[in-house]
Design a protein that fits this description.
The complex is a heterodimer of chains A (217) and B (998). Chain A is built from 11 helices and 1 strand. By secondary structure, chain A is mainly α. Among the domains of chain A are: 1-28; 31-73 and 141-214, no CATH class. The longest helix of chain A is centred in the first third of the chain and has 19 residues, at 3-21. Chain A is elongated, with a radius of gyration of 24 Å. Chain B is of the alpha/beta class and 998 residues long. In chain B, β10 (235-239), α8 and β11 form a beta-alpha-beta unit. In chain B, α4 packs parallel to α22, α6 (183-194) runs parallel beside α16 and α10 packs parallel to α12. Chain B is globular and about 90 Å long. Classes of the chains: A mainly alpha (217), B alpha/beta (998). Chain A binds chain B through residues 31-32, 34, 39, 63-64, 66-70, 72-77, 121-122, 136, 138-143, 146, 148-150, 152, 154, 156-157, 160-161, 207, 209, 211-214, 216-217, and chain B through 59, 62, 64-73, 78-81, 765, 851, 853-855, 857, 859, 861-864, 901-904, 914, 917-918, 921, 924-925, 928-929. β1 of chain A pairs antiparallel with β1 of chain B, so a sheet runs across the interface.
Chain lengths: 217, 998
């Protein structure tokens, strides 16, 4: 092999090295790293409004996190616990009230177009009655936080020991649309496990195992 | 007999091919094939390079993953959690209680229900594999009429119309079924049949026990099958009954049998048989006689006992005793000293022999203790004479309509072709088969039934013990249950659930007194999976011995053919299940085929060797099958397994990897094995599974059997033993007498305490360990299939098994020990990854894909493995399995059975047993959720859970109170290959047999 080929190879190598070692500069992610992933969801659900402004606990909707491997996406029956009564934002309802007062009529029911999607999926008309002509159509959300198939992450174990959701999911309560803020790589997991084993969690001592078989089987 | 145990005849005889085995553990091509491939290393690297480049060019972001929640979830469901439902296994009529594991709406695993009074938590191979049968895409999805797919209204219309005509003409209608243990279904059939002028249910079992019922009709006045209580028997004599393997209710019997084999007390078990059965291989004393002489030994036994009891039998002259008189005296002495605590059983389907068995049990006072005829078993109800009467009626054209449920007479009767011809003379033939099998394909209509995991039903396998079968999934196809079909034809269509509720309210609820409210009783039964209710004792008259007339006479012949049922395949009803086809037979270790067993002496005499194709002929019936030389078999016997050659098994042509050198599991257009049922015979009273006077000839052709017998050997070839000529004490065995004198009897060599390893690996938390009681293990193989279901272990196909690439994570090694006189002793040893403390595999992995956990597990990290196979080469236990290919399910629907908690391993990586680490993690997570610590028994690996004999114990060896720790303190405890200082976490308890020294 001549020197020129070696030089070329080295240059390519250095280039790739920079891309990999300084991802902030290049915006380059290793395959499988979906940091900053923020897909558009079929319903513009705002975690900022629900979890932030209204302070709904995460576990209220993602109730699987306490008892199952998966936190789960809530079914619409959970949404309907509130949205049977709450059909639009407070601002929109007040605006309609004021308009009705001005026009000297009864206020009309205001239904936000996003919440209407829930009613459509459940086959309900605007007055919350089952409309037999509408089919029941579950909505396909797009999963944001994905781990490879060979990783078995168990929400139950983390939630029950007191790890707060934000530790892996970031400040979801401030997000209009959910974005993956951490790379969720194995290094991220292991560093946290080591740290907790050494320093404890919320003042308790916890043995966070770093055995391979804890997650890979 | 330590040191004399051999895995095979080749090892004993020093066959050079075999001895090369352990040296050449990973041969490139199997020993039977010569030559190498034309694919050089250089061209491989080239191709690999291109493939990598191609794969990189295809790189793109991960595909969108969707999360689709339920709109309104069922109250009890949380996605990701497993739910368990109590039900009953319907894979055979034994009626073992099961728990169905449901994940996300799919049943993925069946386990024995520990609370169930019959099976007591165990489940056999067939039950374990039955869940795969649910996802069989060959099952009919709609009714079939005249060979074409039809609809239920159309079929009902046609059948009802036809039945109307039959009613008008007062024609004969017959409902031919296998044993139905469901009281509700039986009642519906009888009321359906009662609606005809001449309607009757006829029952027959392919594996018939008709003679036992007939004999009890003669001796006790009730045609019943007694319930055999092996857990009360201190002395068992079995005349050719394979009660631990395939006879009537093997899981129930195994549980009872092993309950009586808890040291230091040990029952005594004598087995008199012509071929080496699973039961015979576990016997304390095994007497090898020809099939015709089994009845003769029984007659001698009965005569002697009757004389002792002072009521001699009418037959004074008998042909001479074919066995040593001493052995008979010993047997009699033992039986007499265990009056009321002994049990004599016979698998011979011969009424005379069964009458003698009844007499013997009567004289010994066993009725009421070890045999219960007052609360009998309903696990076999067949009547062979009725069946043949029906066949005659059909042939004479008298039968106007016939319904066929759970039977396949065209396939499994000796006169299958006769039955097929007679079916043509019947005006209306309706089948209920799940697939278009040999018989159903000749029916006018097929009304396919649900799988037992899809429907409501009930069962009363033993009087007073009722079980509810509940559905665990909505039916996958448009099938309909038997009860619904009958109710539709009777003009009052109802759902099976409603029918069952009504029937239970009127006929079961009234038999119990514990619950006041029917709803509470129903809920409790569905939840528990069973109910114990009162049973009216069967009316029997005092034992009548006046009927002792015939004696099973000897019919000497050079060759006698014996047909037997094999674990897994049974009568062939599960022949379409790849897990069962690939399960090595417990004795022969052969997969995917049936074959002719011949004894070593006979093989030597006729120059037969393994794989020689033999032609077995009797009259007009002939079959050509490869030979297998089977130690322990009688010299005049050739034996063939039933259940092979089923229609539709040609599907397995596509099982396993399809590659250049791959050979299909079944040849083009062929089937798996050959059907041996035409050799069966009917003697006017019962169906016989043996045939004297067959001719055996060599065809000169050869056939490769796929055997898992000779590989994964732990022994060291003699040439390589060097300075240490002592063979490795892999299985250790002692007699009861020796054990009572010295609990450590049978131990050969202590462990070597010297170690080069630093003691730097502290196990501060749990240290998982396993202890296997080899005395309890019967070798049934339930653990193998349980592991396969739990851990997504693939099926590789016959060709790959032949290439030593089978994938089972747990195998059962079978060792023979010479007992002289052509007989062998057998020891079974389940072997899985031993999770060594100083694991040889860990030190050689260049990429740290196999590393030690803080709890003593030998972790295998699939995503890290690059497939060097160094670890497998360095493993002394030969338990690592390499994925030479991807092994997708041949039937894509069967992907539904995959356990979502275990990674599907891809091509090119190593896998092995991990003590079901997913279950350990699940148990830990649940314990934490409930705020408690992990307790002994919280974690049960699949193998341990399924074991009918409770031979496997698993737990934390750091906890001195755990079962494993207790077993570790047992004097029988030893570890295999511990002298290598690998510090295995798996240990065994030595085999103790109740036999005399020698």
């Amino acid at each position: 092999m001549n020197t020129r080929a070696i030089t070329n190879l080295l240059l390519v190598g250095i280039g790739l090295g920079i891309l990999v070692l300084f991802p902030k500069i290049s915006g380059f992610h290793l395959p499988g790293n979906q940091k900053d992933y923020s897909p558009v969801q079929p319903i513009a659900f705002s975690h900022r409004l629900h979890a932030g402004e209204l302070s709904v606990p995460c576990i209220y909707c993602h109730y699987g996190a306490e008892r199952s491997r998966h936190a789960g996406v809530p079914s619409f029956s959970v949404c309907m616990n509130c949205h049977r009564f709450v059909t639009a934002t407070f601002g929109a309802v007040r605006a309609e009230d004021e308009l009705a007062q001005k026009e000297k009529r009864d206020p009309r029911r205001v239904v936000s177009p996003e919440i209407l999607k829930i009613y459509d999926a459940m086959g309900l008309d605007e007055s919350m009655k089952r409309d037999p002509s509408k089919p029941l159509t579950p909505v396909s959300w797009i999963k944001v936080h994905n781990l490879p198939d060979f990783v078995y992450f168990d929400h139950r174990r983390h939630v029950n020991v007191g790890v707060e959701c934000q530790r892996c999911h970031g400040p979801v309560e401030t997000m209009e649309r959910v974005t993956q803020v951490l790379d969720l790589s194995m290094g991220f997991c292991v560093n946290c496990h080591r740290d907790i084993t050494k320093n404890g969690l919320n003042g308790k001592s916890v043995n966070a195992s770093i055995d391979c078989g804890g997650c890979h089987y | 007999m330590p040191g004399n145990d051999r895995k095979s005849l080749e090892e004993r005889d020093g066959d050079p091919d075999f001895l090369r085995g352990p040296e050449d553990e990973f041969p490139e091509v199997p020993a039977t094939e010569g030559g190498r491939t034309g694919f050089s290393r250089r061209s491989f690297l080239k191709a690999a390079g291109f493939a990598t480049a191609g794969a990189l060019m295809g790189c793109k972001p991960a595909p969108l993953k969707k999360a689709i929640p339920y709109l309104i979830p069922a109250e009890e469901i949380t996605p990701g959690r497993a739910y368990w439902y109590a039900s009953m296994c319907g894979a055979c009529p034994a009626g073992c209680g099961i728990l169905i594991k449901n994940r996300d709406g799919r049943p993925i695993k069946l386990e024995g229900n520990p609370a169930h009074p019959l099976a007591r938590g165990g489940l056999c191979v067939v039950g374990q594999a039955a869940v795969l049968g649910l996802y069989d895409s060959q099952r009919l999805k709609a009714p079939v009429s005249g060979g074409k797919e039809s609809s239920w209204p159309a079929v009902d219309e046609a059948i009802r119309g036809r039945l109307k005509k039959i009613r008008a003409s007062r024609g004969k209608v017959r409902f031919l079924t296998g044993t139905i243990t469901s009281p509700t279904a039986r009642r519906m059939i009888s009321s359906f049949m009662a609606s005809f002028a001449d309607g009757k249910q006829v029952v027959y079992d392919a594996l018939s026990a008709s003679a036992i019922l007939d004999a009890h009709e003669a001796s006790h006045g009730a045609r019943v099958l007694p319930r055999y209580l092996f857990d009360r028997a201190d002395c068992i004599v079995s005349f050719d009954a394979d009660f631990l393997g395939t006879w009537i209710s093997p899981v129930e019997y195994t549980a009872g049998y092993t309950a009586k084999r808890a040291l230091p007390a040990l029952s005594h078990h004598t087995q008199i048989e012509s071929r080496l059965s699973l039961t015979g291989s576990n016997a304390d004393k095994r007497i090898r006689v020809g099939p015709s002489d089994i009845g003769l030994v029984l007659a001698h036994l009965a005569r002697r006992l009757a004389e002792d009891a002072g009521s001699p039998l009418s037959f004074r002259t008998l042909p001479p005793l074919p066995i040593d008189t001493g052995a008979l005296n010993e047997m009699i002495e033992r039986l007499l000293s265990n009056r009321g605590k002994s049990l004599v059983v016979s698998g011979l389907n011969d009424v005379d022999a069964q009458r003698l068995v009844n007499l013997v049990n009567h004289i010994l006072g066993n009725y009421g203790t070890t045999l219960d005829v007052k609360r009998p078993s309903y696990q076999k109800q067949g009547n062979d004479r009725d069946l043949y009467a029906l066949l005659d009626d059909m042939e004479s054209g008298e039968v106007a309509g016939i319904f066929l449920h759970g039977v396949n007479p065209v396939y499994d009767l000796p006169d299958g072709t006769r039955f097929a011809a007679a079916m043509k003379k019947v005006g209306l033939v309706v089948g209920f088969a799940e697939r278009s099998d040999e018989t159903a394909s000749l029916a006018h209509h097929i009304c396919p039934e649900h799988h037992f995991l899809e429907s409501w039903s009930d069962a009363e396998p033993v009087a007073g013990i009722l079980t509810i079968t509940q559905p665990a999934i909505r039916p996958l196809g448009g099938t309909r249950s038997l009860m619904e079909s009958i109710s539709a034809w009777m003009g009052t269509p109802k759902a099976d659930y409603d029918l069952l509720r009504e029937a239970w309210r009127s006929s079961v609820f009234t038999r119990q007194t514990l619950e006041r409210s029917y709803q509470a009783f129903w809920d409790k039964t569905v939840h528990d999976g069973y109910a114990m209710v009162g049973a009216t004792p069967v009316g029997t008259h005092p034992f009548s011995s006046s009927v002792m007339k015939g004696v099973p006479g000897p019919r000497p012949a050079e060759w006698t053919l014996v047909l037997y049922a094999k674990i897994g395949l049974l009568d062939g009803r599960h022949a379409h299940n790849p897990w069962l086809q690939e399960l090595p037979d417990p004795i022969s270790k052969i997969t995917w085929d049936n074959y002719v067993n011949v004894s070593p002496a006979t093989a030597a005499r006729f120059g037969i060797s393994d794989g020689d194709v033999l032609r077995i002929a009797a009259g007009s019936v002939a079959v050509e099958l490869p030979a297998h030389v089977q130690p322990g078999q009688h010299d005049a016997v050739a034996s063939i397994a039933l259940g092979y050659g089923r229609k539709g098994t040609d599907r397995f042509a596509n099982v396993g990897p399809q590659w250049l050198e791959g050979r299909p599991t079944v040849p083009e257009g062929g089937l798996v094995g050959k059907n041996a049922a035409p050799f069966r015979g009917f003697d006017g009273r019962s169906i016989q599974d043996w045939k004297p006077g067959v001719t055996v000839t060599r065809t000169g052709r050869r056939y490769d059997l796929a055997s898992a017998q000779t590989y994964h050997s732990l022994s060291v070839p003699e040439r390589m033993r060097g300075a240490n000529p002592e063979p490795r004490p892999i299985v250790q065995e002692a007699t009861l007498d020796a054990f009572l004198k010295n609990p450590a009897a049978g131990a050969t060599r202590g462990e070597d305490p010297a170690s080069l390893w630093p003691e730097d690996h502290k196990y501060t938390g749990a240290r998982w360990g396993m202890a296997i009681d080899l005395s309890a293990c019967t070798g049934c193989g339930a653990c193998v299939v349980a592991c396969q279901a739990e851990n997504n272990v693939p099926v590789v196909g016959k060709d790959e098994v032949r290439r030593r690439r089978e994938m089972h994570w747990i195998r059962i090694d079978r060792y023979y020990a010479e007992r002289g006189n052509g007989d062998v002793g057998v020891v079974f040893q389940p072997v899985m990854c031993h999770q060594c403390g100083n694991a040889p595999c860990e030190t050689v992995c260049p990429v740290l894909a196999t590393v030690h956990s803080s709890e003593g597990l030998n972790q295998q990290v699939y995503n890290r493995c690059v497939g060097t196979r160094y670890c497998a080469n360095n493993c002394p236990y030969k338990v690592r399995r390499f994925n030479w290919f991807d092994y997708p399910h041949e039937d894509k629907l069967q992907n539904m059975v995959l356990n979502p908690d275990v990674t599907i391993r891809s091509r090119g990586i190593m896998e092995k047993c991990t003590f079901c680490v997913q279950r350990i993690q699940e148990a830990k997570a649940e314990a934490r959720r409930q705020g408690r610590t992990l307790m002994d028994g919280d974690v049960q690996p699949a193998c341990m859970q399924s074991c009918p004999a409770k031979a496997i114990a698993f737990g934390n060896a750091n906890d001195p109170e755990s079962t494993v720790s207790k077993r570790k303190r047992d004097p029988r405890w030893y570890r295999v290959l511990a002298e290598l200082n690998v510090d295995p976490s798996v240990g065994y308890l030595r085999v103790i047999r109740n036999r005399e020294e020698g």
